[in-house]
Amino acid sequence: MQTAILIVQCKDNKGIVAAVSDFLYRNNGNIIEVDQYIDDEVGDFFMRAEWELDTFNIVKDEILRVFAEEVGNRFKMKCSLSFNYPKPRMALFVSKLSHCLFDILSRYHSGQFQVEIPLVISNHMDLRPVVKAFGIPFYHFPVNKENKAEQERKQLELLKGNQVDFVVLARYMQILSRDFVGDYPNSIINIHHSFLPAFVGAKPYHAAYKRGVKIIGATAHYVTEELDAGPIIEQDVARVRHHNTVEDLVQIGQDVEKVVLSKAIKYHLAKKIQVVGNRTIIFN
Amino acid sequence: MQTAILIVQCKDNKGIVAAVSDFLYRNNGNIIEVDQYIDDEVGDFFMRAEWELDTFNIVKDEILRVFAEEVGNRFKMKCSLSFNYPKPRMALFVSKLSHCLFDILSRYHSGQFQVEIPLVISNHMDLRPVVKAFGIPFYHFPVNKENKAEQERKQLELLKGNQVDFVVLARYMQILSRDFVGDYPNSIINIHHSFLPAFVGAKPYHAAYKRGVKIIGATAHYVTEELDAGPIIEQDVARVRHHNTVEDLVQIGQDVEKVVLSKAIKYHLAKKIQVVGNRTIIFN
Amino acid sequence: MQTAILIVQCKDNKGIVAAVSDFLYRNNGNIIEVDQYIDDEVGDFFMRAEWELDTFNIVKDEILRVFAEEVGNRFKMKCSLSFNYPKPRMALFVSKLSHCLFDILSRYHSGQFQVEIPLVISNHMDLRPVVKAFGIPFYHFPVNKENKAEQERKQLELLKGNQVDFVVLARYMQILSRDFVGDYPNSIINIHHSFLPAFVGAKPYHAAYKRGVKIIGATAHYVTEELDAGPIIEQDVARVRHHNTVEDLVQIGQDVEKVVLSKAIKYHLAKKIQVVGNRTIIFN
Amino acid sequence: MQTAILIVQCKDNKGIVAAVSDFLYRNNGNIIEVDQYIDDEVGDFFMRAEWELDTFNIVKDEILRVFAEEVGNRFKMKCSLSFNYPKPRMALFVSKLSHCLFDILSRYHSGQFQVEIPLVISNHMDLRPVVKAFGIPFYHFPVNKENKAEQERKQLELLKGNQVDFVVLARYMQILSRDFVGDYPNSIINIHHSFLPAFVGAKPYHAAYKRGVKIIGATAHYVTEELDAGPIIEQDVARVRHHNTVEDLVQIGQDVEKVVLSKAIKYHLAKKIQVVGNRTIIFN
């Protein structure tokens, strides 16, 4: 079933829900899901509606224009419209660790993720056989201080050439440059192996061990210019005990990382995430 | 701020959200929260809307009638309307264990629960001092096989005389009769000390220990005729290990029980629960 | 590093810890981990000790005999001795669902599981390509009422021929016969897709949906004659909401299943599980 | 049943477990619980043993000396010995929020905590009635910049005069001075309303809201000179969603705070906590 997804944002006001739902009703849109949220802090209203395209009276290319005329302009709405088809195209960036890659490919393989994976990029060769076994092109871009800018330029070229919609850093151990990030706003998902904002940066499990925390975590977030500071999409945790070594934390944490990252991808694919300032609304 | 809460249920159909939200808009209702849910299993649509009464154009007593005429009848809706004021009146039933009672009275004392507690009923005297310290009337009804019907009759009289809206069994160790339950449909909340439907009935921690489970739980549910089988409102769990004795399970479990029960009370007070068959919708 | 693991069980008595630890000390055993547990219910004492073999004064084949003479017989101990090398040999049984299989193979691939996987057996062909990609032999045994006994006989032959130490049912949708189970006591690990003892048997997610639970779970247990009633090794849960469909529960649950099953395998590989009656001690 | 609890720390070495357990065995000590831990990081060995005093051959006052002679000196052990009787004496410090206070008093009342509470100290009068209802002396010490040193001096006097063994800051909104803390090393337990080390300092729920975290937490720790940086005893978390306001976080968080703080008190009372550097071992 093909669907359209509309997300709107505007100053909170009476009559918005009525106006949007009336628009869908008048144009024969069968609503599958609708969710709204009022941010009392800033006084903004947010709404996400998903409806069937089949029976809808307005053709895809005209929906946004007609909606703006009939509803959006009146409330000074920011609108974004997307469709569940064709499938979004996701690029994976990996280094040496395989747990997140396997988890993603497993869901891709079983059909849980409605996504195309045109390519996997890595700064190491280690995971090439895994990727090839799934029939996905693998590109090796060794990165060092000298060639980083040049390699990123080539990577971006490759992403554009493959019509990549969003990027997932599945334990990619390189920091992307400001320029790279700027090309994919709110479209690069990273998994950080700590419960942010605790333990930003490198070796968070070592830092967690040293601090003696009783719970460790993982955080999926959109990448922004500032390291590990982008909008958080999903987090989860696991309990640890004093006798767990750093190596134990790494292993326990990996089980959290992969599930958290895959949940974030799922939300992103379903267009359920709206970034507001440095926070995310997860429509559900 | 005084608010009205409307919950409607009907066959799913196009235009319902538009009709309800338009009704509120036309009558100057400032929406505070609206949530809807489509039950694909039975094809029913559910909606909960809460709005400010102050500015609303229709007086309290007329809302339900006008809504039925203008919207409800068209969609053959079942409607229920309530208000957040005056505060609901809650009766507590307890036996000897104090953890749930303390937790509820603590929230009542700090203003977290917007509720009146006109009385506490118990089949034992143990908790009388606790209840009196909070300035709440305490009634002692010793119960045995012979006097049970008679005692329940008196308890019901007391509840009616105190305009009690709903009853909370805070680890009350007696089974209420079918007649008693019938007088308070979806208005008696019980906390069962297991993760239902596992370990129905008496001594669930002993049963959990014997079965060797690695996680125990607690379940808050509406009381129905069948023991521990009513609609589940909230559940939570705690991890246990092989070296935990039955006494440990009891103590670990109590921390879960009291939080789960208080969450259920909070949902009930906010009119966020809709019972459908033997399931609950928790609007949020 | 090669290690020996000794697990003893006997009536609780003074001096046991002293006797066992003195035995290891006198024979130059460098203890890596020691854990004990007194079961107050039955009055039994349990102890697990793991130590380095390199420097130990007694050769592998003699340890059990010498220990019995010097310590075990005095306390009427039941003893079991094992070694972390050579790696145990694990057979996987699967049907059509791939999430547990991928999770296990991913850990096998990354070296997290110190195990050999000589073969995978399935009643369907679906997962053959996945298994082959990992270079593991795949055997197809279609099963129906008529051929079940015969197929099990052949499967057992294959297991024996491959020196299989233990079997993991990674969402294998067939019930093993009493005879099959009898051949591998406490050596067949199953993952059941519910929080046992709730929802025994087929279609637990459907049953969970129908009962309206707010939390679902998964249980890894040793297979015994009685369906889903064997000793529980590990459990975990995930929160669900009223708007989750049965399909949602299936998907949410799969993330729990795979992590729970892999934890159980990890405990089994490390010889950290002792079955007592129908419960498990997990030494840690 | 009266018990003795011995905790030892020394460089890891062969024969320690044997020596300690042999000492207890020879002197007729019936072991109730024994647990050990090797810290691979620093190469230290830790052991906690609890045994019955009744039948023990050495009188209380002599145990430490005899143990040192027969075992401790040989391994250069640091030893600490304590007894479960008489009950430890705990002072509570509170400000205005009642949830932790109620939770502690509820457990005290039901006998879950084996402790004496000779007094409660507060910088506000709000919770005086609650404390008085439990028959516990309440002392009011208003604190400002000018009188802080003087008030702390009086508080310390009061604590000494009441033979207080340890202090619990149950949401006490004042920072204790370095001198005060120095008088009770590893004996002042604080509950911080965040998942440390995230959100150190004031208003952590506001900071958590602003950062957009999906999980909030609470941390019980020993107070040291550096704010919110002492050894962590226990932590737990709760899930939050985008629509939760700061006030929601406060309320959700309070349920976590009170359970975490009470767990920490329970461990402290049972002498199950050993501080090593800035980490804690929780024997179990």
UniProtKB/TrEMBL annotation, chains A, B, C, D:
Family matches, as InterPro entries: ACT-like_dom_sf, ACT_dom, Formyl-FH4-Hydrolase_C, Formyl_transf_N, Formyl_transf_N_sf, PurU, PurU_ACT
Active site: D228
Boundaries of every ACT domain copy: 5-86
One term of GO molecular function: formyltetrahydrofolate deformylase activity
UniProt xrefs under SUPFAM superfamilies: ACT-like (SSF55021), Formyltransferase (SSF53328)
Enzyme Commission code: 3.5.1.10
Listed name of the protein: Formyltetrahydrofolate deformylase
Enzymatic class: hydrolase
Family: Belongs to the PurU family.
Pfam families attached to this UniProt entry: Formyl_trans_N (PF00551)
Function: Catalyzes the hydrolysis of 10-formyltetrahydrofolate (formyl-FH4) to formate and tetrahydrofolate (FH4).
Reaction it catalyzes: (6R)-10-formyltetrahydrofolate + H2O = (6S)-5,6,7,8-tetrahydrofolate + formate + H(+)
Pathway assignment: Purine metabolism; IMP biosynthesis via de novo pathway; formate from 10-formyl-5,6,7,8-tetrahydrofolate: step 1/1
CDD domains: ACT_F4HF-DF, FMT_core_Formyl-FH4-Hydrolase_C
Keywords: Hydrolase, One-carbon metabolism, Purine biosynthesis
